[in-house]
Design goal:
Helix content: 40-55%
InterPro entries: 3'-5'_exonuclease_dom, 5-3_exonucl_a-hlix_arch_N, 5-3_exonuclease, 5-3_exonuclease_C_sf, DNA-dir_DNA_pol_A_CS, DNA-dir_DNA_pol_A_palm_dom, DNA/RNA_pol_sf, DNA_polI_H3TH
Distance between the termini: 79 Å
CATH superfamily of the largest domain: 5'-nuclease
Subunit structure: Single-chain monomer with multiple functions.
Largest sheet: 6 strands, mixed
GO molecular function: 3'-5' exonuclease activity; 5'-3' exonuclease activity; DNA binding; DNA-directed DNA polymerase activity
Strand order of the largest sheet: 3-2-1-4-5-6
Organism: Arboricoccus pini
Strand content: 5-15%
CATH topology of the largest domain: Rossmann fold
Protein name: DNA polymerase I
CATH architecture of the largest domain: 3-Layer(aba) Sandwich
Structural class: alpha/beta
Mean pLDDT: 86
CATH class of the largest domain: Alpha Beta
Shape: globular
């Protein structure tokens, strides 16, 4: 007797959770009628990817029916702190449901229950019916489900969440996540928890006593008196939280498992959906795998257009030598590297991908291993391949082409290859199209070539089962790898000619292309960090937070959650009777709760109230601990003792670089605690860190671009620009300008760059809108050229669809003609700001390149380490400090030819903080 066939896996997609994350992760997009569709685009792409990757699975998409659920009856304040969704997201709620229907997937929702409850109930029923279950969500509450045939998949990070990942996040297994959440609470859902108990402490307590109830039954055994008392005072709050974070496993199931069977994708239905929502790149990818539906009946698709390239595994040196010879003949070579890590400092070369003609790609495997870590037979020797490639990769007569070539430059430099000259298809796309779309290879291949690339998961799997590329069988890895180089070559052939057509050659050739090699060096070098100092800071910040929490409770006269805006508003305004807005009515959010943002607390603290300042101090310490001290410790390279950030070159609309993994650009510098964190970044022995920071560069650019003579003269004479502005606006002598007037002028000086209005200025200065409006009018009356510049920028954006920096970089404003006032207003502010911020970013890039060339010419041992907003950080030998300082200042101050002089502030010391 044959065994019964295994039932298909049941995939439950958290549609409501995903749309919020997609909305905030993706840049603005609109369909032809102006309706926002960025979250729809992300959601539909995710669905399509899942359908391709899991052809045998049954899929259900689950949504929240409304913001109210049975939990609201248990606790009125549940999720009451959440703001209304952004107006640009609201119309997309219905569209994501249309997306599910276009893919013929069941979409379910039940009034009174959250999507989490439906997912829990379907998971339970699915397991009972013999299905394995995959929950597609990054919601921490759903991690309670992991185990016994139920796994999770984070669609934003493309990462599987199993038991080990749950333990890593919560310190306990899935079966105790509910207990930990009940103690720690959840500020995002306004679940109270127990004040002062974080996830780490909650996990320790739950593990020690077995469960929440086990803990509550043994409170007399808690050794710390304060902790014991806090727990005793909040027993009911903990039990309430336990009910709130628990999942309902008996929610109604709107459709049966018999109705979830997979259907063939309907090409006509999907085309109609994509065309209606302007999703051209998605449509192109769909039509690669779904029978294409001609736009006009009777016109057949050219079969040749759908042919895939051919790929070859190189196992003989003669073949590699022939490829190299062909590269010399044609004058170009597309190259990609395959490695076992995305971190340049830790990655080892696994193989090299090459292409010299469209339609054919090659993969040279070098370091693939079997399940026992032993080298696989049939690979060329690494040393021989490096020796064969080094001459052509370093030859200036052969153009090398890569996608995110910065990574290839960094990897190959570790093997002694200083590759050049290079072209980068990611940067070509970025220069040409800005933030109009993403610049990943997969997206560009679909957009420009109508080609669906092989997903990485098809070779290496996903989640906890994912393997590194060196363990992938060569037979599976070869097509994926060779495709990278072949697609890169075709993208280069499609994009490079557009530089001349669109007059963007200068931006690419003088800024982006040469900067890639410089940034690769910065990433490989890294910056040294004192881990012991970071550990000490984490302990100090945590202890001070506990002290501040106790102090806040004493000032309030009762215990409350410092992380709950609702409770905070009640304490400050209902119970203590404080008044914000200069004695006027206290502001409330759309949910009816009091506004308790930093601006409100700062205003109250400035009025002499002690509790708001305590709360501000507590919030700052919480952020510093979570975002910096704890996180940075994990990022220190075990071999180098240095942090190796990655600079994103194609992530912003204005050309600014961004830093990630870790982000070193957002470490605060204006607070004592923030400066302590910078003090953990240190120089090597015999060196010092040097900081070179442009002074007020965006205001100087504004003075030049708007041709404001008074501002130019102030800058030329090194006069306090904010005092000058205040004096001219308010008819005072500069020496008579007080702190308040200078503050107002400074706020306007910088606010104008971002298109600030009367409402925004009134909020920042704590004054009435009428007074703020009068300030702005006085400013424009004093500097009419600024208003002229603003109107000119908006007009250019409306006419061209973009504005440009002084160096020709285009910053696109797709919503400038939107019928939605909020989107149009945002685009207008961007049109005003982008040329200024973008020009400042271009000047910084020019400065980096000038300084690097000058240091190399001088034979200096000074190393550039970081670019942080308007600042460059260097590691300088102590005996070079004087010479290096003079060189860096000279090159940075001469990086632009403006009608306003650029100035650079320089400092140095053993730590980054000392250098400020």
């Amino acid at each position: 007797m044959s065994e019964p066939a295994a039932k298909p896996r049941l995939v439950l997609i958290d549609g409501s959770g995903y749309i919020f994350r997609a909305f905030f992760a993706l840049p603005p997009m609109t369909r032809p009628d102006g309706t926002p569709v960025n979250a729809v685009f992300g959601f539909a792409n995710m669905l399509f990817r899942f359908l391709l990757d899991r052809p045998d699975d049954d899929i259900i998409v689950v949504f929240d029916a409304s913001r109210k659920s049975f939990r609201s009856d248990l606790y009125e304040a549940y999720k009451a702190n959440r703001a209304e969704p952004p107006p640009e997201l609201v119309p997309q709620f219905a569209l994501v449901r249309e997306a599910a229907r276009a893919f013929d997937l069941p979409a379910v929702e039940v009034e009174g229950f959250e999507a989490d409850d439906l997912i829990a109930s379907y998971s339970k029923a699915g397991r009972a019916a013999g299905h394995d279950v995959l929950v597609v969500s990054s919601d921490k509450d759903l991690m309670q489900l992991v185990g016994d045939g139920i796994a999770m998949w984070d669609p934003m990070k493309s990462k599987e969440i199993g038991r080990e990942e749950v333990i890593e996040k919560f310190g306990v297994g899935p079966e105790l996540v509910r207990d930990v959440l009940a103690l720690a609470g959840d500020t995002s859902d306004n679940v109270p928890g127990v004040p002062g108990i974080g996830v780490k402490t909650a996990a320790q307590l739950v593990l020690e006593y077995g469960s929440l109830e086990g803990l509550l039954a043994n409170l007399d055994k808690i050794k710390q008196p304060k902790r014991r008392q806090t727990l005793q005072d909040n027993v009911e709050k903990a039990r309430l939280s336990y009910e709130l974070v628990g999942l309902a496993f008996e929610a109604p199931l709107p459709i049966s498992f018999e109705e979830t069977g997979r259907k063939e994708l309907d090409g006509a239905k999907l085309r109609a959906f994509c065309e209606a929502n302007g999703l051209r790149s998605l449509q192109a990818r769909i039509e690669q795998v779904v029978a294409p539906v001609p736009a006009n009946p009777g016109i057949e698709t050219d079969p040749a257009a759908l042919e895939r390239p051919t790929f070859e595994t190189v196992r003989e040196m003669a073949v590699l030598e022939a490829i190299v010879a062909k590269a010399y003949e044609v004058g170009y070579l597309a190259i990609d590297t395959e490695t076992n890590s995305l971190n340049v400092g830790r990655a080892d070369l696994v193989g090299v991908c090459l292409a010299v003609e469209a339609g054919h790609g090659y993969y040279v495997p070098l370091a693939h291993v079997d399940d026992f870590g032993q080298p696989v037979q049939g690979q060329l020797p690494l040393e021989a391949v490096i020796a064969a490639l080094k001459p052509v990769l370093e030859d200036a007569s052969v153009q090398k082409i890569g996608h995110n070539v910065k990574y290839e430059l960094g990897i190959l430099s570790r093997y002694g290859i200083m590759m050049g000259p290079t072209d980068c298809t990611m940067l070509l796309s970025y220069v040409l199209d800005g933030a109009s779309h993403g610049h990943g290879m997969d997206e560009l291949a679909a957009l420009h070539l109508g080609y669906q690339t092989i997903p990485f998961s098809a070779v290496c799997g996903k989640g906890v089962a994912q393997i590194t590329f060196d363990r992938a069988p060569i037979e599976k890895a070869s097509d994926y790898a060779a495709e990278d180089a072949e697609v890169t070559l075709r993208l280069w052939q499609a994009l490079k000619p557009r530089l001349i057509e669109q007059r963007m050659t200068t931006v690419y050739e003088t800024l982006e292309r040469p900067l890639a090699a410089l940034l690769a060096r910065l990433e490989v070098t890294g910056i040294k960090v004192d881990k012991a100092r970071l550990h000490a800071l984490s302990s100090d910040f945590t202890a001070r937070m506990a002290e501040l929490e106790i102090k806040a409770h004493k000032l309030a006269g009762r215990v409350f959650s410092l992380g709950s805006p609702k409770q905070l508003g009640e304490v400050l305004f209902d119970e203590m009777g404080l008044q914000s807005a200069a004695g006027g009515a206290n502001r409330k959010t759309k949910t009816g709760a009091y506004a308790t943002g930093a601006d409100i607390l700062e205003e109250l603290a400035a009025s002499g109230h002690e509790l708001p300042q305590v709360l501000l101090d507590w919030r700052q310490l919480q952020k510093l601990t979570r975002t910096y001290t704890d996180a940075l410790i994990e990022e220190v390279g075990p071999k180098t003792g240095r942090v190796h950030t990655s600079f994103s070159m194609a992530a912003t609309a204005t050309g600014r670089l961004s830093s990630n993994d870790p982000n070193l650009q957002n470490i605060p510098v204006r607070t004592e605690e923030g400066r302590k964190i910078r003090g953990a970044f240190i120089a090597e022995a015999g060196f010092e860190l040097l900081s070179a920071d442009y002074s007020q560069i965006e205001l100087r650019v504004l003075a030049h671009m708007a041709d404001i003579q008074a501002l130019k003269e102030a800058f030329s004479q090194d006069i306090d620009i904010h005092a000058v502005t205040a004096a001219q606006m308010f008819k005072r002598e500069v020496q008579d300008v007080g702190a308040d007037l200078r503050r107002s002028a400074k706020m306007i000086n910088y606010g104008i760059i971002y298109g600030i209005g009367a409402f925004g200025l009134a909020q920042r200065l704590g004054i009435a809108q009428a007074e703020a409006r009068a300030y702005i009018e006085a400013y424009f009356a004093q500097y009419p050229g600024i208003r002229d510049y603003m109107e000119r920028a908006k007009a250019e954006a409306r006419e061209q669809g973009y504005v440009a920096t002084l160096y020709g970089r285009r910053c696109y404003t797709p919503d400038i003609l939107s019928k939605l006032p909020a989107r149009r207003s945002y685009a207008e502010r961007a049109a005003i700001n982008a040329p200024i911020q973008g020009t400042a970013a271009d000047i910084m890039k020019r400065a980096m390149l000038k300084v690097a060339r000058a240091l190399e010419t001088e034979g200096s041992k000074t190393r550039m380490l970081l670019q942080v907003h308007d600042e460059l950080v260097f590691e300088v030998p102590t005996d070079e400090l004087h010479a290096a300082s003079a060189l860096i200042r000279r090159e940075m101050e001469s990086a632009a030819d403006l009608s306003v002089r650029l100035t650079v502030d320089i400092g140095h010391g053993l730590t980054w903080n000392d250098a400020h």
